[in-house]
Amino acid sequence: MELGLKNKSVIVTAASGGLGFSVAKCFAAEGANVTVSGRNPDRLDEAVSVLEGCGSGTVKGVICDVTSPEQSINLVERVAKECGLDIIVANSAGADTAPFVEMSDEMWRAAAETKVFAQIRLAREAFKIMRDSGAGGRILFMAGTHGRQPHAHAITAGFSNAALQNVSKALAEDGGPHNILCNAVNPGPFATERMVYLAEEKARDDEISVEEATAILTQETVLKRYGDPDELAAFVVFLASDKATYITGASFDIDGGQVKAL
């Protein structure tokens, strides 16, 4: 299937590893011109070297801590100036968590800064550029299923993800007249470092082993397994493609059937 992504300019943040890297790899394979960001220079260089061999488009790496307003704004403006901007996948690290009574005000603020404000800021800068260009574009928020199915062991994730899902829905209304499509993607349990962390937190809270916690998290899905990051990436790339021009204001659970709510 031809997705119409060849030579499109794409930003994927927090993409030196994990889900962001897999998303960037899938865009690169479709011939898009991909800019990836990350905080660690060595990891980012390694990611770029792999991505350069995936497709016919260009690949650039930009050091960027998305919790920094200056760095985030500079990233989006730089890419737009050099090659335009068609698509942004606003991705950021998950927030730290702890038992509710141990969560200080500062931990809650940090959760908001790490995920909510980071992605909103990226979306805001991209939206202005896409609107002013008159060409439209795609803004994808990487939220998560805990925003729809809360868990005590991932309480900051639920808080952050629910906020992003709400903002994405509202921004779709603002973007409609400009052909800027906005959607939220909600990853469930995927085989990444993040799930190792959440399993460790659950094990501590429930006083069980990490292996037992991992088994419980796996069993929460209908498919009884963690997802492969490439399974998520394929959907994200489709959502940004010419085959998804009537999809906006939506929130998609990519979770192996983890979320039970309608």
Largest sheet: 7 strands, parallel
Please report the distance between the alpha carbons of the first and last residues: 30 Å
Structural class: alpha/beta
Q: Kindly state the percentage of residues in helix.
A: 40-55%
Give, in spatial order, the strands making up the sheet with the most strands: 3-2-1-4-5-6-7
Write down how many β-strands occur, each being a DSSP E stretch of 2 or more residues.
7
Summed up, the domain count is 2
The CATH topology of the largest domain is: Rossmann fold
Order of helices and strands: EHEHEHEHEHEHHHE
Average pLDDT works out at 95
Explain what the structure shows.
The chain is α/β, with parallel strands linked by helices and 262 residues long. It has two domains: 9-188 and 228-253, Rossmann fold; 190-226, no CATH class. 47% of the residues lie in helices and 14% in strands. It contains eight helices and seven strands; from the N terminus they run βαβαβαβαβαβαααβ. The chain has helices at 18-29, 41-51, 69-83, 105-133, 155-175, 193-206, 210-219, 229-239, and strands spanning 9-12, 33-38, 59-63, 87-90, 137-142, 180-187, 251-254. Strand 2, helix 2 and strand 3 (59-63) form a beta-alpha-beta unit. The protein starts with 8 loop residues before the first strand and ends in an 8-residue tail after the last strand. The mean pLDDT is 95.
